[in-house]
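Pilot study result, target chain (257 residues):
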Amino acid sequence: MTAPPRIAFVASPADDAQDALAQLVGAHGQHEPGEADVLVALGGDGFMLQTLHRHGSLGKPVYGMKLGTVGFLMNHQRCEGLIERLHAAEPAVLRPLEMVAQTESGATVGSLAYNEVSLLRQTRQAAHLSIDLNGQTRLEELICDGVLVATPAGSTAYNFSAHGPILPLGGNVMALTPIAAFRPRRWRGAVLKADTEVGFRVLDPYKRPVSATADSHEVRDVVEVKIRESHDRTVTLLFDPEHNLEERMLAEQFTSG
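Predicted structure:
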């Protein structure tokens, strides 16, 4: 008989998540994340991203239960039958983006993004950017509210709201999507190979300051940002077979809601 996995339960501060946490810990016990076989995250997509940033370096698979507003990265919430669900779950391996931002003050700031890295104007003035791909300038001038680079898993989030494409998991691609582009007005972005290094330069950082955000980590007053897919970091999310991440992403492309 297979021994039950050692589980580390983590939960958002929301009342529903805390109630589920108490019920699940009472039924299955609790382990520290570093000693567990699997992490079970209770919350919404925002809390899942926090969990990946906090514990992703441990290399432990993460199974999410939706106890929040948005739960694209989560499974349905049900406390019964958890061990059976964990044994039957299907893995989705995600590779984050690495952002390195240079600020106007001369600081260098690095961060990871499992969903997207976005550059956004900080004031009423539109951002004024240029875009390099693998060191070669591809767009000399982009005037916009912002621009983002999204992973396949993150392509259904902010990227999709900005009219970017939904990307297939395992497609080895990422999305480059403008936000309210004013010039060139008809530019809709690009789908890039995952090994592309994307470079942004802020062309007028004093008059038109820009911030860069990797998931929820914001760096203000950037002058240059480089983004590439991580070579050595992955995380594994676990999904119920009847509603796995690949199926959800496919379904999202055929919904009108």
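One observation from the pilot: Residues 15-28 form the longest helix (14 residues). A full batch analysis is planned for the follow-on phase.
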